[in-house]
Structures are given as structure tokens and as C-alpha cells.
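Retry 2 of 3 after timeout on previous attempt. Resubmitting C-alpha cells to design endpoint.
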């Protein structure tokens, strides 16, 4: 009986269901995970650099407020003139495909550090580490950028125990060549005197005269002085074939009798180099042999770069006179230190050819107009020589074609699309109240200026 009772006590119970997982909060309707990020319009910065400043990540939940904030971060950094974005759901509608469209700030220059008491490579390493956009060759010259790097430099110098205050400024290193310079904010000492040592080929006086007017009163930095030496002194040596001239040391000392400093420049004059081969490094629009003959380069002579520059100038003029008015002619040196020679490669960018259009003579009567047309030899459709109109007027005056010839003027009108040039030559009499005759000695044709 007991056994039977125990058997009845074993009743079956239905299996228990597992507890349901708590519901996950649904993503807000206006936010989705970011599935992909890209950048358009960037040139000097990589997409990775731009996105590092935007500070959005793949997989992050984002909507318009997050993208607006990212855009604002890019604009605030000072490297971009304009920033916009676009995003759309991907194919399955579960994430965003987002793109930032940027316009980089066009005004950017190389960077230089002066007189900060720390090697430049240490400063550059610190800035690269703390700012993903830092670039020594292309830094935007905007206030947010300069202010940011001034603060970073102040922090870096403070970590080195320096209390130096830093400033940033754009300086002209040469015509059309600028740099951003970070230097101490305190006033720079002015140059009062400059002396040279190590010079033998050129006298102390010749070297001082070459830079004196620009150097005296110049706020001194070593870079500013080296720039002055390169522009004022180096050409004197290069005219003598001393193309490896260098200035290995520049030292300063206070001047007791005036406010300022004395600068001592050590000169290594180097050896004399001779001119080797001169050739074009690519195609030229005119006969290359004729152009090289125009340059009149003295191969084998001392490499006088004043004379070489004059020869290159003559080539540039010849190319322009051949109708290529926008021509650019540059050179590149190839130095052989073993042979002590310099080869010169000449590069010509001719641009479009301009042709002669119509010519008009203003201020002449019919006979005078006819004579000018007879003398004018630059025919329509021929390559336009930009010097010809003025040379023509000079010839008219020198040959005495007109009596009482006053002021003359040549005017050109260029069609930028067709590159056709029309010319107007204006003639006036030296005594406006008179009617000057053409010179009677020219075959008996005698006319006058029109009123």
C-alpha cells in the first residue's frame, strides 16, 4: 500500500518556460549606426586626417546633431574654408553611408622655427604627435591654426623649463615666397654692423656693400640673415664660378656704442666651377639650335651665372617674340663636384601661340594710313611679336616719316579664347594747332595728320 501511495504522489508538472530577455531599446528613428565614412575635396590632407578631426567612428549611432557637431569641429580647426556633409541609408537600411565634403584653406605656407632654444626636429615631432593636421610644408595661415600651434608650442617649451612667449607670423622670404615663422614674441635685436671673415676673392667692402642697405636695422634672426646673404652675396660669388659658396657660421655680439648687434659671417668661398653642357630638357616651340645660339652660352668658361641668366633671358625674349607671349623659361643646375663643372638644363613652357589680328592707325589721313599699312609687315594670322608695335613706332620716328610727329602709342587687345591680338597705333602732332606734313624726302609723298 505504501508503495502504491508513493506512486500516486509522483504527479507530472508542465515544463517551466525560460524567462524572456529584457527588450532592447529601439534605436531612435533619427539615428542609425554609421556604416561607412568618406571624404571628398581634400588635397593636402588625407581622408584619415580629416575624419580624425571630425571625430566620428564606424558603428557609432549618429544623426544630424552628431554630423553638425563634426562639421563644426572641422570648421573650427582653421584648415578648411567650407565643410558640408551628406548621408543616406545603405542598401539594407540599417546604417548610414556618410561623406564629408571639404574645401581646404588655399593660403598655406611652409613652417619654420627660430630662436626657440629647442631643435626644430623635436618641435616638429611634438606637434605631429599632438595634432593630426600638422604639416611642415603646408600650414594654413589662418588665425585658428596659428593660435592653436602657438599654444601647443608654449606648452612644449614649458615642459622644457622655458618661459619663452611665442608668436607666429607670415614673413616674405623672397618675392612671392612666404613662410610661417614661430619665434619668441620679444622684440628682436636690430643689426647694426656686419663683418665677414674667410673671404679672399671678394673684399670686405664689396661684401658689406652688397647687403648693407638691407641689413642695417634688420630685426635679426639667423634665417633672415641667411636669406639676405643668399640674395645679396651669393650672386657675387656665382658670377665668379664659386657656386658652392657657403656661410658655415653666423655669430652675434652686442655693439657698445649703438643700440643693436654686430653680426659676424664666416664665408667658405669654395672652388671655381666651369660651365659644362647647356641643353633643353624637353621640346621647344622654336628651333633649339637657334635658341641656344641666341643664349650665347660659353661652354668651358667659368660658370658665370650672371651671364647664364642673361642668356636665358634672351631665350625667353625670343620665344615670346615667336608668338608665345605666356612662355616661362626656367633652369636647373646639375653640378659635378668631381669635375668641377655645372651643366644647365633649360625648361620651356611655351603656352598657347598668339597670332596677329587687325591693325588700325589712328590720327593719320588716308595717305598716311596707306603708308603705315605698307610699312607694317606683321600680317594677320602670323605669330604675334609683342615687341613689334613699339619697334615699329620707333622705326617711324627714326626714319623721319612724318614732320612734327608728337607722341605715339601702341595699344593691344587680346582675345583670351582665340589668342588673336589686334593692334591700334595712335599718332599725334607735336604742335596740335598745325597740320604736320609727311617728310617730303620720302619719294615726294606728302600728306598730313588728320585733325
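Retry 2 succeeded. Sequence:
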Amino acid at each position: 500500500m505504501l508503495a502504491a501511495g508513493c506512486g500516486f504522489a509522483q504527479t507530472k508538472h508542465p515544463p517551466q518556460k525560460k524567462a524572456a530577455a529584457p527588450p532592447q531599446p529601439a534605436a531612435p528613428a533619427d539615428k542609425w549606426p554609421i556604416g561607412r565614412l568618406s571624404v571628398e575635396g581634400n588635397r593636402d590632407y588625407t581622408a584619415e586626417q580629416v575624419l580624425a578631426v571630425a571625430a566620428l567612428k564606424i558603428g557609432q549611432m549618429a544623426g544630424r546633431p552628431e554630423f553638425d557637431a563634426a562639421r563644426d569641429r572641422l570648421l573650427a580647426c582653421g584648415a578648411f574654408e567650407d565643410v558640408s556633409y551628406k548621408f543616406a541609408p545603405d542598401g539594407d537600411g540599417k546604417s548610414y553611408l556618410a561623406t564629408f565634403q571639404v574645401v581646404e584653406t588655399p593660403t598655406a605656407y611652409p613652417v619654420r622655427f627660430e630662436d626657440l632654444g629647442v631643435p626644430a626636429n623635436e618641435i616638429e615631432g611634438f606637434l605631429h604627435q599632438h595634432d593630426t593636421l600638422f604639416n611642415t610644408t603646408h600650414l594654413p595661415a589662418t588665425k585658428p591654426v596659428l593660435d592653436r600651434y602657438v599654444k601647443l608650442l608654449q606648452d612644449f617649451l614649458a615642459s622644457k623649463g622655458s618661459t619663452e612667449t611665442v608668436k607666429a607670423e607670415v614673413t616674405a622670404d623672397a618675392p612671392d615666397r612666404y613662410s610661417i615663422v614661430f619665434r619668441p614674441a620679444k622684440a628682436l635685436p636690430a643689426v647694426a654692423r656686419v663683418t665677414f671673415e674667410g673671404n679672399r676673392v671678394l673684399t670686405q667692402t664689396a661684401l658689406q656693400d652688397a647687403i648693407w642697405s638691407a641689413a642695417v636695422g634688420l630685426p635679426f634672426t639667423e634665417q633672415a640673415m641667411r636669406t639676405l646673404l643668399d640674395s645679396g652675396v651669393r650672386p657675387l660669388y656665382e658670377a665668379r664660378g664659386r657656386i658652392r659658396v657657403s656661410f658655415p657660421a653666423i655669430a652675434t655680439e652686442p655693439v657698445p656704442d649703438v643700440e643693436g648687434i654686430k653680426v659676424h659671417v664666416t664665408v667658405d668661398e669654395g672652388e671655381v666651377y666651369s660651365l659644362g653642357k647647356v641643353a633643353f630638357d624637353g621640346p621647344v616651340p622654336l628651333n633649339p639650335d637657334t635658341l641656344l645660339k641666341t643664349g650665347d652660352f660659353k661652354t668651358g668658361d667659368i660658370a658665370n651665372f650672371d651671364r647664364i641668366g642673361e642668356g636665358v633671358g634672351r631665350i625667353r625674349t625670343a620665344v615670346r617674340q615667336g608668338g608665345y607671349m605666356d612662355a616661362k623659361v626656367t633652369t636647373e643646375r646639375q653640378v659635378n663636384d668631381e669635375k668641377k663643372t655645372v651643366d644647365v638644363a633649360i625648361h620651356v613652357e611655351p603656352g598657347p601661340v598668339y597670332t596677329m589680328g587687325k591693325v588700325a592707325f589712328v590720327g593719320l589721313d588716308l595717305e598716311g594710313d596707306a603708308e603705315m599699312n605698307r610699312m607694317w609687315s606683321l600680317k594677320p594670322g602670323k605669330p604675334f611679336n609683342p615687341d613689334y608695335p613699339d619697334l615699329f613706332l620707333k622705326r617711324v620716328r627714326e626714319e623721319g616719316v612724318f614732320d612734327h610727329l608728337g607722341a605715339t602709342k601702341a595699344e593691344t587687345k587680346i582675345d583670351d579664347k582665340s589668342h588673336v591680338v589686334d593692334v591700334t597705333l595712335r599718332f599725334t602732332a607735336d604742335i596740335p594747332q598745325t597740320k604736320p606734313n609727311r617728310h617730303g624726302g620720302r619719294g615726294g609723298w606728302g600728306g598730313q595728320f588728320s585733325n
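Attempt log closed. The mean pLDDT is 88.
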